[in-house]
């Protein structure tokens, strides 16, 4: 089944690349008007209007192949048996890491016995911005 889905995926990618190439070499709607005034496309490989029919039909055929391959891949992905629960229920459980303690600022040092420096006061949120607002 895995090989079959790989083959379908390869066919889908080739069809997509082929469609991109065919769409890029097609002329726009305004290009036909230039040919009617002597644009010189009548001497092309497919004739005056043959390239438009050939390229549009080839693009339609590749689009059909692309959509069929897409539907086949979607069907094959949904036909797999569903697991009997959530993905999180099947996840391996590991022990939580031990919490690290962070020393408090301003606490006295236990080894030196020196008095601790006073903790710096933290300004309230937005105090800097409030000082910059001009008042009347």
From TrEMBL:
Give the record's membrane topology: Multi-pass membrane protein
Annotated region Disordered: the residues are 96-136
Q: Does the keyword Membrane apply?
A: yes
InterPro entries documented for this protein: SecG
Keywords of the record: Cell membrane, Membrane, Protein transport, Translocation, Transmembrane, Transmembrane helix, Transport
Location of this chain's protein in the cell: Cell membrane
State which residue ranges cross the membrane.
Answer: 54-76
Q: Which residue stretches does the UniProt record annotate as biased composition, category Low complexity?
A: 103-136
Q: What does this protein do?
A: Involved in protein export. Participates in an early event of protein translocation.
The UniProt similarity line reads: Belongs to the SecG family.
Q: What is this protein called?
A: Protein-export membrane protein SecG
This chain's source organism reads Comamonas resistens
């Amino acid at each position: 089944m895995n090989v079959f889905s790989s083959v379908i995926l390869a066919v889908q990618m080739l069809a997509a690349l082929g469609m991109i190439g065919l769409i890029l070499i097609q002329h726009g709607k305004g290009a036909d008007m230039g040919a009617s005034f002597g644009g010189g496309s009548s001497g092309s490989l497919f004739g005056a209007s043959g390239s438009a029919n050939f390229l549009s039909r080839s693009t339609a055929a590749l689009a059909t192949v692309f959509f069929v391959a897409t539907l086949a891949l979607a069907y094959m992905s949904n036909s797999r048996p569903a697991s009997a629960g959530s993905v999180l229920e099947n996840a391996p459980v590991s022990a939580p890491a031990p919490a690290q303690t962070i020393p408090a600022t301003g606490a006295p040092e236990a080894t030196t016995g020196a008095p601790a420096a006073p903790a710096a006061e933290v300004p309230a949120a937005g105090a800097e911005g409030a000082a910059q607002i001009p008042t009347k």
